[in-house]
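Review form for a predicted model. The reviewer records the input and the model, then writes brief findings.
Reviewer: anonymous (R2)
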Amino acid sequence: MPVYKYKAIDETGRTVQGILDAESPKGATDKLKRQGVFLSSLSEVRQGKARSFNFFRGVKISELAITTRQFSTLISAGLPLEASLTALSEQTEDARLGEILTQVKDRVSEGSSLANALNEHRSVFSDLYINIVRAGEASGTLDIVLLRLADFLEKQAALSSKVKSALIYPIFMFFIGGGVLFFTMTYVIPRIAKIFEDSQKALPVMTVILIKVSGFFSNNILLILILLPVLFFLAYRFNQTARGRMFFDRLSLKLPVFGKINSMVVISRFTRTLGTLLASGIPLLDALKIGEAVLDNRVYSKTLEEVRSNVREGTSLAKPLRDSGVFPPLVTRMIAVGEQTGEMEEMLTKVADIYDQQVETMVSTLTSLLEPVMILIIGAVMGFIVFAVLLPIFNLTSTIG
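Model under review:
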């Protein structure tokens, strides 16, 4: 549906502007008339030109967190819902989010609830977001639950940002080192090997090994360049199946060091999600079902299905979590204490904070160790190549002497 940018004059004579979606310019004009404003100018917004261009047409979690906090502030200040949505759509710098907020505002103006309007844009608003907003509307505490949502999204964005920023340098070093090594083995070494072959001298074992490896890469470079994308595509297709997703998720939890980090990230996300949902008035069974959906790991999602089934039958939450063998004792014990004291939400938030801190510490430690290890490995490989090349040259020079 086309999106239009407009300028108009409201009933008080004040100039207002914003964006809205409509089937045609006439439809946009009719919508504004129903809102009680008089149109002065109208222009269609082309994708990517109204605000900053976003190639993937997605919404960053950090941008959604900022908008949600601003939404909470506007509601708590007494601004009507439609006016708040209008202000947010005009203020955000994300083109995609601005268009969506305009469409949400139009649905609300037509009589829809905020949660139902958000439900039409599930690519941006998760089940957790929608259900918390629905609970806030039902209880009349929309500003409070939006504030909780903003805190939740900011925590998730901060954790994701720390993990990504910590791994940028090692990944950069891996690709640069791999690229240099591939170029050396497929371009430089074959030309040096031709010189050694022309000399018709016996070569050291190191040099022979280097030439054999280089010959394999240079002779099969086309096959390698074709095979690697094919393997990645097959792995991607396998990951789209239920069996493949379970295989890769299980593998990601068993990797040395990285498996533990991945497990702690999943547990942190689960406990923070569950705590936020319960604090917003969502029943435990519904909160567990939403928690299954937001976890990006089938091993934990499958476990939560069984936990939810046990809780439905009257079991406490801590017991099936402990029996699953997936959740550490710290998590199950703190949840058990929360159930006994009636402070489940606070305990879940504390668990999430603990695991966030552990993830940050482990990632920082891993990064500080990976950098010298990768430099050492790259240096050792390049040293082997240099030594294997220079050794026959020294032998040839001594023979000539």
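Findings: The first helix runs from residue 25 to 34.
Further findings: Residues 46-57 have pLDDT under 50 and may be disordered.
Recommendation: see findings above.
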